[in-house]
Design goal:
By secondary structure, the protein is α/β, with parallel strands linked by helices. It contains five helices and six strands, in the order βββαβααβαβα. It has helices spanning about 45-50, 65-75, 100-105, 120-125, 145-155, and strands spanning about 5, 25-30, 35-40, 55-60, 110-115, 130-135. Bound molecules: magnesium ion.
């Protein structure tokens, strides 16, 4: 069983808090109907994520919801049929990210890594299993080589095959 890689977009793949495009990023426009979004994309990320595809099952975990496959996957050269976590209610929660209860339900007992700019201590406490990796990303910088190395290293250091993991929901 391969671990899931839960991918946030705004922050990790679009460093939307950067004052100017960090090295390697290009400004891109996403247009759909009357709407236009301006994002920063690092084309190398597509290749980095494709390389991780052997170690993880990629999952969109972004407020773009189904728009991620439709609008973001093509920008990054990712498959347009990635599983997508949906968030029917984005009300603030008492601790941590509003995504967390949905993530907990969605992943169940599966091993997973989660890259997001809005995760931190609360998620580290909630998902503290050896089969769970919370990787906060700076929204001014986006995913870096160090993040990809950490993900590769974490997946390589685990043998998920045949293991049964305790529930954390
Ligand atoms: Mg984000």
């Amino acid at each position: 069983m391969r671990p899931l890689l839960l991918l946030d977009f705004d922050g990790p793949l679009n460093p939307h808090r950067a004052e100017q495009a960090p090295p390697g990023y290009q400004p891109r426009e996403i247009v759909e109907g009357e709407k236009t979004w301006r994002v920063l994309i690092d084309p190398r990320h597509g290749a980095e994520l494709a390389a991780l595809d052997g170690s993880f099952d990629l999952v969109w975990a972004t407020s773009w919801e189904h728009g991620a496959n439709r609008l973001l996957s093509p920008l990054l050269g990712l498959p347009s049929d990635l599983p997508t976590i949906l968030w029917p209610d984005r009300s603030p929660v008492r601790r941590g990210s509003w995504k967390t209860p949905y993530v907990a339900d969605w992943v169940g007992d599966r091993p997973f890594a989660w890259v997001d700019d809005e995760v931190g201590e609360a998620e580290n406490v909630r998902f503290s299993g050896a089969h769970q990796l919370i990787r906060p990303v700076d929204a001014r910088v986006g995913l870096t080589g160090a993040d990809f190395a950490a993900l590769r290293g974490w997946a390589a250091g685990k043998s998920f095959a045949g293991k049964v993991f305790p529930g954390h929901s």
